[in-house]
Hints:
Helices cover 28% and strands 19% of the residues. By secondary structure, it is an alpha/beta fold. Strands 1-8-2-3-7-4-6-5-9-10 form a ten-stranded mixed beta sheet, sandwiched between helices. The mean pLDDT is 94. The structure holds threonylcarbamoyladenylate (TXA) and magnesium ion (MG). The site of magnesium ion has 5 residues, from loops.
Amino acid sequence: MSQIIQDIQPILTCLQQGGIAAIPTETVYGLAGNATDTQAIQQIYALKQRPLDHPLIMHISKEDDIRHYAIDIPDYVYPLIQQFWPGPLTLVLRCDLTKINPLVTAGQNTIAIRCPQHPLAQQLLQHLPFPLVAPSANPFGKVSPTSAQHVQESFPSADLLILEGGRCPVGIESTIILATDAKGYRILRHGNIDSTQLSAALPHHELASQMIEAPRVSGNLLTHYQPTKPLYYFTHVADAIAFCAQKPNTYVISSYPLSTFATNQGIILPEDPKLWAYELYDQLRLADHSTAQTILITLPPEEPAWQGTRERILKAGTTLLK
Ligand code: TXA
Ligand code: MG
């Protein structure tokens, strides 16, 4: 049975001895292990049931230097680090293949690196003499965990230490950008740091998708982040109301009052992108635990600040309207 603990010391010992442990970050909880230890990395892939061709993000401390791991680093990367690290931004860089365990990169010649902001994640990284790989601490394709309890319920029978770090303040995974081209970057996965903030930091540096060969990233999978119950998303509230009229036993996640949908199961979320991101995975889990048979979510607008949440909803759910 997994165990939630408050003390950082047993987590440090576990990681130093080649074990794996769940740790809080500001985005979601991660399943962490020594990024230089093949057996630790293998345990992570096995517990997550993650295909071996899905590379992992390496987490470094704010005292560490990307030049230890990456090569041919474009100049524009440094202002990004300056502005957004520690924080929810992952950089995919060309890597020195002699310095990175091939299981981390899934055999690609690029490495995803992130410097997390959560104080406990930083504390762990500063105490350890190696970086950590840390995919989200959930079975592959399922809803990511934003609390220690979520991790525990994701792996009920695993013998896993979980470091208590409270609710993750961001709530969705980091923004990932591909930074292998000196001319500019490309967003691979949307997150809390949005395209408006990136282009304010780096005017004229975002490249059109077709200019770069796409690497493997779960943002590219058609389905991901899925709850157990069917999740339907709707752009127009009238369609959502009509759906609920036919399926009254529905859990609704929306900015409209629940009475609009003639249901009392669900949550009204004010139209605030950060709040939706914070609540999304928690709400999908609450919906799974509820007596509802289906989950309905109204899709936020197609605007930069909403891209992270929209991307998760589009991958987690289906639409009835083509
Ligand atoms: O916020 C986060 O990034 C969280 C926390 C725990 O840090 N981690 C996380 O890891 O979301 P994971 O494994 O669930 O997602 C990592 C994503 C995957 O979509 C993977 O394909 C992509 O990063 N990725 C890793 N290395 C890559 C690479 N070299 N090139 C392109 N994509 C890469
Ligand atoms: Mg994940």
